[in-house]
Amino acid sequence: MAQTEKKGGLLRKSSASKKPLKEKVVLMYDEIFTTEDPSKSNPRFWEELFLMKVNLEYLEGKLEALDGEELMKIKDNINCLFQHCIQALGEEHPIRVVNALQTLCALIRGVHQKNKSTSGFDIINMLVGFDKAELCMKNLMESLDSLLCAEGSESLKSLCLKLLLCLVTVTDNISQNTILEYVMINSIFEAILQILSSPLSRREHGYDAVVLLALLVNYRKYESVNPYIVKLSIVDDEATLNGMGLVIAQALAEYNRQYKDKEEEHQSGFFSALTNMVGSMFIADADEKISVQTNEAILLALYEAVHLNRNFITVLAQSHPEMGLMTTPTSPIPTTPVTPLGTTPPSSDVISSAELPLDADVQTSNLLITFLKYSSIVMQDTKDEHRLHSGKLCLIILTCIAEDQYANAFLHDDNMNFRVNLHRMPMRHRKKAADKNLPCRPLVCAVLDLMVEFIVTHMMKEFPMDLYVRCIQIVHKLLCYQKKCRVRLHYTWRELWSALINLLKFLMSNETALLAKHNIFTLALMVVNLFNMFITYGDTFLPTPSSYDELYYEIIRMHQNFDNLYSMVLRISTNAGQWKEPASKVTHALVNIRAIINHFNPKIESYAAVNHISQLSEDQVLEVVRSNYDTLTLKLQDGLDQYERYSEQHKEAAFFKELVRSISINVRKNLAFNTLSQELLLKEFSTIS
């Protein structure tokens, strides 16, 4: 018997007969693509169509092959197909519903391809017709809402979410997507929350639900009242918020795990020797793939949750039992290949095993630890645009956290100590830290470590000025909280002071090159004012009196850098030019640092001369410092503990607009290549197939 091959909607017998036979569904599609109403010749046409296995490739190909004029000629049939798809969503037969959902995906994608050309027709009119749009879209959204909230098939829920993601990302700029007006009016917000609050639904559909919500929140967010923003900001249900946190933590933890695996792979065997010879280009490529696939969508969801909902702040510190010490869940593997869009799918065992064992002793983890670890990876390399955007978003999220009173309370809580194993960039002049020697400390120490790490590792030709400014602002906001609440944090402050002084040194060494692109005086002023904060208020938040003495020791020891900075800003502020004013602000800010240097240096020299010592030890310098505080005069500087609060709309709107566009394109691309295959669906509905 001759074998049958299937290709592009055609059935071909591998016998002498070369004439291809078309599948019945393809013949039915061809009827839709004529100007005649297909139900005239066959009254049961639409009923039969949704029993046929969908040929997505053929249907989309037909739509894309037509030009705008040809498509307008068959608009009535397209409208009819769209309306019958919506009607089929209410059918009892699950296979009809599956076929209707897949057909809708193909229609939306195909018509969108046409809309990108210059034909100028409107997507809504082409799909449903203006006169019926409101009612049709209302019915569609209600059907999707019912399917998402029903107890039924997880495969159907998966397809519903894919269809919604298809709808949302039909244009690169989602704010220009007029279809979304109907998604705003007929809200599916509660259905998304229901998915996130149920462990089973969350495990199977949580990622798509969270990405969908993040995108919907960004629809015309600055131009009109977006109901998804309003609703997200007032969610206070613990199970829902924790569910959202778990989905985000799982995706970030999976990224961390993949990165760690790659890192170990590169550090072992022949591959390691090879990369040592040819540099890090292979590593960069591998990390790039992971980074691009997992980055911005989930990070945007975390940002929106932290920024909009104050109740979500509590979720950051919540221990994750699902990611904790539990055994592997016994729930079945999803029946459909649910690939989260815009990322590589988290593996099915992530919840149980990926994040928790941060060290040999095994300790509980939480979303904030996972996020800090993730940030330490993506912020290592900011030369790549995706990572630069991710690094910026990580710092924006940390800015929101650093401004929040409740977040600060648990960040600084002495009873909440963790070992946080941050990734450190390999550098020639320092050894790789041993993970097991990490101390248990309040979480704020890990945030400060991350900031210090960034400051130390990004002094380079392509200087990321914007990220440095955000980094220093985060440190400042944390210090403001410590000063206000008199929190004496046991932290290795010397590492921060040393990093800040080295940053000033870098700015001075590269003055000409940097000034061609950046106002380095803004950053220098912020760094100097951090020192002023320690000098003026350090006695209220540094852990011990000796810590305050060490601050003075560091300033005196590194006095040459402050002297050079003063000379530079004095030179620029006395000449007319664009930097005159910002440079003069730094000059005034240095008054107390210079007073300390000018007060103690002569006394140290005198002590050395009297005692005939050529090189004083640290203890001897500290002795001079302690015995000469009384005669030191400092000026009181106002506003050191004040800061401008973060505002998205006024300062970050352009960044988020571009970020959301990039996510929208990425989600659509992944959806387009993710074949919504029916084989597994048919297995699930085996009674029909």
UniProtKB/TrEMBL annotation:
SMART domains in the record: DUF1741 (SM01158)
Keyword Transmembrane among record annotations: yes
Domain spans labelled Armadillo-like helical: 435-671
Annotated compartments: Membrane
Keyword Hydrolase recorded: no
PANTHER family in UniProt: ARMADILLO-LIKE HELICAL DOMAIN-CONTAINING PROTEIN 3
Protein name: ARMD3 protein
Name of the encoding gene: Armh3
